[in-house]
Structures are given as C-alpha cells and as structure tokens.
Design brief:
582 residues, Sulfite Reductase Hemoprotein, domain 1, 5-stranded mixed sheet, 20% strand
C-alpha cells in the first residue's frame, strides 16, 4: 500500500490576530511508484499497459505467421513500436532527415520500413561457420551492413520484415539468437573475450553464462521488467567487461578460504543520469552464480520503479536502498541463504580490449584486433572466417570495445594472421586513436540521433593518425574517444578520456551546426586510478563536428606537453585548468 505522511509547519512566524486559527494541511499521499511488491501490478503508464496486455515474447509467432507474409503494412502499432524489441528489432531512421528535426518529428515520420536487428553473442566464441552465417546474413539480407556494438552484439540494418524468419533460422544453426536482445528484458550478456583460454585467468565464466542462459533466456516470468537489464561476467584480471556500468556484474576474485569465485556488483548504468555500480561485499561461488543472477533480476522486476520510465532502471532502486539493504533483500527474500563476505577485485592488469598478441594457457596465442568504430560488414566477416580457418585458429570473440579477439592461433602462424588482419583493416597493432575510438549507430540509422557518429569518428581517426604521428611514441596508453549521437550514451561517453555527446550547437556567429558537448577524463577499470571516475564537463564547452579533429589534436598536444611523468589522460584531465581543455 502507498505510504502516507503528515506534513506539519512548525516554523514560528510573526504574531497573528487571535481570531485566525492555524492552518492544518491534510495528509499527503505519495504517488505509487509502480513497485509490484509495494503498489501492486496495476499499470501506471502506456508502456506498462502494453506489456501487461501481452507478453512481448509472444510476438515472434505473429512475426513468423502474419507479419513476414503480410509485409510491413500488416504490423500494428503496439507490436511495431513495442513488442518487436523483445526479439531485437527496431525500425531504423529514414534516410535524409537531418539531426535538427529529430525532436520535431513523430516516430512514424522518422522511421523507415526497414529494421535494425540485434544479434546477441553473450561472449560466445564464433567459429568459422558462425562467422560465415553472420556474414551471409549481412550480404544477402542486410545490404552488406554489420556492426560490432559495445555490448558484444552484431547489429544489422536494412532488414525487411519478410526476411526475419529466415535470419532466425540461419542464426539457430550456429547457436545464436535475438531473444530479448532489446526491450524491458535481460539483454545480451557481456562475457570475457578470453574466457577459458587466457594464461592469467582467475576463473572461467563460460559455465556460468551457459547455465544462466539455459535456465532463464526467454523465460516469460522475466520478460516484463521495469526497463532494460544488463549483465557482465568476467574472470580475467583485466576486468574486461566494463562491470562498473552494468545492472549486475560478477567479477572474478580469489577468496582466501573459498578459492576462485565472483565479487557481486549491482546498479550501474549511464544514459542521461550516470551512476557507477556498487559492490555488495558478497562473494559468489560458481555454483551460486545463476541463482544470484536470478535473484537480482527478480528484485528489479518486483521492486523496480515503473511509474516514470526515466526512473525505471535498477540504479535508482539501489540509490534509494543502498547496498546493505539490497544485499539483505537478496539473501532473505530471494536466495534463502547468506552469501559469504568476499574481497574486492584488485587493480586491473592491462587494458581490457586485449589488442595485440597474448599467450594462452595451452601454448597457443590469442590476438586482439581493432575495427574502425565497429564497422565490419558481411564481406569482412566472411573473409575473417576464411583467415581463421587458413591459419588454423579456433574462433573469434567480440569485445565490449567494438573490437575482436582471434582465439587459438598456433605460435608459428601468428605473423601470418597479423598480416591477414591488416589486409582486412583489422589491426592488432593499431594507432592509439584507432584502438580506442568507439561510436554508436548515430544519425545514419538511429531515430534518436542528432549527429553523424560513425563517419565523423572514422574521419577523425584518419586525421589524427596523420597529424599526431610525431606524438605516437610518447603516448604510453591509448586515448579513448567515444562519439555518441544523442544524450543516451550508447557509446559510454562519460567513461572515455574524451567523450562526445551529440547535439545541435550554435556558434558565436549564430550558425546552428551538428556538434558535441565534451566530457573529459572518464575512466573505468584502470591501474592508475583508485576508483572509476566519470568525465568532467566544462561550462559552455561545445565543439562543432567539423572541428573535432582540430579540437582533439589541440587537447592531446597540451596533455603531452604538461602531464606529469606516467600520468594518464584521465588523471590529467581532472586536474588541468579549464583553458587547457578547450
């Protein structure tokens, strides 16, 4: 039941006439927040009504039996702009609509008759057959499009509803799916790209991810959450799954008595109200991990705020409860047992993108290679499958940094693989800018975007590689540049050295241009920081998209010229004077 409280005015004021009685305010009833276990399950807004009317998972049958045969015009509004997301489908942006009109037009005016389709990989190793299936879908059914996202997904564009059942059928042959890839559901998992093969791994998370998926992927009981729910699981000491910004993360640690297991983090997310996850101080044994995951997602389902959609992420519940209460509810209401207290992860050892050549525990090697802002395409995926097979490697995993890792490379074939990757535009020896630049989908396809991202970022990389070649030997670490087309932070702008939030800006001459608000000095797991930090913003500091290469060059040169010995860009940016950062 909603709680009520009486608000009293106890402040003494000036003397009043005796005939004037004091005013008594009636009790104020707090609005219900849509917490199922507190307020009941009655829907409090249109989104909740849609989900209550029909489970989003049910739309698959209609896609296969009605919409694919009937075409785009056969799809009703509720499914098209709602339940399709439960199967990884969003309508894409119609070409030719500039970013200044994004907020002025209705969704049906912005959208095309084609879809973005998101394929979840959940940290899986993609063998040559899987790569060829992914490449073939791109080439034959998505106009050659394919992007590696920072959630380890493959995203296609130009997908027609008529072809969706065929795509699902092809994906199933290699163990891939789009189930709950979007929507108010447990979305795709981030898993360590080097799970099970790295020589310095603490614990292999592969069995945990497999068990959670076996029990709960596509579970109707988890298909109506307040908002999206994101998971990250790693056992590698580089902490390579950006655990600080997920709803739940399991991070490999060694308990002094219980051995290897996981440290539990909850409540991280970015978007317009960024909040870093918090440790619950609980140690999770491997055999407990699936139950713990299930408990946390059900807490979100049952206690998450549903009344206002912009307050419906788990981070808001954690902020209200605190980690102590969250752990108590998890243990008493959902697990039925107490978790052991456990150690925090140590400082990360090395970058989490795994770019370069690294030894495996079996004597072979894994090789991490950078894409250019995630763009791959069907031809590249197919050629990569051929290369993996030719050099006798095992498979490929995607990373949360829009890059990829080739696994199981024989020692005597590493050089051949490196040369082959270079020919495909996938460098294991990239410049500091190509290595660490990410970009969201942007204006090209996204209905929320205000500015172009992929092409802007790719152009900036090329310019910086030429202009800053003299400084490259002096950059001990890459400088991350994250380019986002709107305020929602799909490219994690608040956690980058230089994060760019797309918007229309007005110049001193009154000209309106695509541009960016700048965030500086963000960083997640990093050896030089005691704890993660979000980037800082400068008052009235915006950069036109056309001037982005000039701006980044200027700031990087100032960093190199004024940093302390061994100082990272993130640390420098937080201590630098405002003028140095403009």
């Amino acid at each position: 039941m909603p709680r009520t409280e009486t608000v009293e005015n106890s402040e003494a004021g000036p003397a009043r006439p005796a005939a004037a009685p004091p005013r008594v305010r009636p009790p104020r009833t707090e609005k219900p927040q849509g917490q199922w276990k507190v307020d009941g399950p009655a829907p409090l807004n249109g989104n909740e009504e849609l989900k209550a009317a029909d489970n989003g998972l049910n739309v698959r049958d209609r896609i296969e039996q009605i919409y694919a045969p009937g075409g785009f015009d056969s799809i009703p509004e509720d499914d098209l702009h709602g339940r399709f997301r439960w199967w990884g489908l969003y309508t894409q942006r119609k070409p030719g609509i500039d970013g200044g009109r994004t907020a002025q037009l209705e969704p049906h005016e912005l959208e095309d008759r084609y879809f973005m389709l998101r394929v979840r990989t959940d940290g899986a190793a993609l063998d040559p057959q899987a790569l060829r299936v992914l490449g073939g879908i791109s080439t034959e059914l998505a106009r050659g499009s394919a992007d590696v996202s920072d959630r380890q997904n493959i995203q296609y564009h130009w997908v027609g509803i008529e072809d969706v059942p065929e795509i699902w059928s092809r994906l199933a042959t290699v163990g891939l799916e789009t189930t709950t890839a979007c929507g108010d559901t447990p979305r795709g998992f981030l898993g360590s790209p080097v799970a099970g093969i790295a020589a310095d791994e603490i614990i292999d998370p592969t069995p945990v991810i497999a068990e959670i998926k076996r029990r709960y992927l596509g579970d109707p009981e988890l298909a109506n959450l307040p908002r999206k729910f994101k998971t990250a699981i790693t056992g590698h000491p580089s902490q390579d799954v950006v655990h600080e910004i997920n709803d739940i993360s399991l991070v490999g640690v060694v308990h002094p008595e219980l051995g290897p297991g996981y440290d539990l983090w909850v409540g991280g997310a970015l978007s317009t109200t960024p909040r870093l996850a918090e440790r619950l101080g609980a140690f999770v044994r491997e055999e407990q991990a699936a139950d713990v995951w299930h408990g946390v997602v059900r807490i979100f389902r049952d206690y998450g705020y549903r009344r206002l959609r912009n307050k419906a992420r788990l981070k808001f519940l954690l902020a209200a409860w605190g980690p102590e209460k969250f752990r108590e509810v998890l243990e008493t209401e959902y697990l039925g047992y107490a978790l052991a207290d456990g150690p925090a992860p140590g400082a990360p050892v090395g970058p989490g993108d795994h770019v370069g050549v690294h030894p495996q525990k079996d004597g072979r090697f894994y090789v991490g290679a950078a894409t250019t802002v995630g763009r791959v395409g069907g031809g590249l995926l197919t050629a990569l499958a051929d290369l993996v097979e030719t050099v006798g490697a095992d498979s490929v995993r995607l990373t949360p940094f829009q890059s990829l890792v080739v696994l199981g490379v024989p020692a005597d074939r590493v050089d051949e693989l490196l040369a082959g990757l270079d020919e495909l535009g996938l460098s294991a020896r990239p410049s500091p800018f190509r290595r660490s630049t990410m970009a969201c989908t942007g204006l090209e396809f996204c209905k929320l975007a205000i500015v172009d991202t992929k092409d802007t970022a790719a152009h900036t990389i090329s310019v910086l590689e030429e202009r800053l070649s003299d400084l490259t030997p002096q950059l001990e670490q890459s400088i991350s540049l994250h380019v986002n087309g709107c305020p929602n932070s799909c490219a994690r702008i608040q956690t980058a050295d230089i994060g760019l939030k797309g918007q229309i800006i007005t110049t001193a001459d009154g000209e309106q241009l695509p541009g960016f608000q700048v965030h500086l000095g963000g960083s997640l797991a990093a050896p030089e920081l005691e704890q993660p930090q979000l980037g800082r913003t400068l008052r009235q500091h915006k950069v036109a998209a056309r001037d982005l290469p000039d701006y980044v060059e200027r700031v990087v040169r100032r960093f190199v010229g004024s940093r302390a010995p061994g100082e990272s860009f993130a640390v420098w940016a937080h201590r630098a004077e405002d003028e140095e950062l403009r």
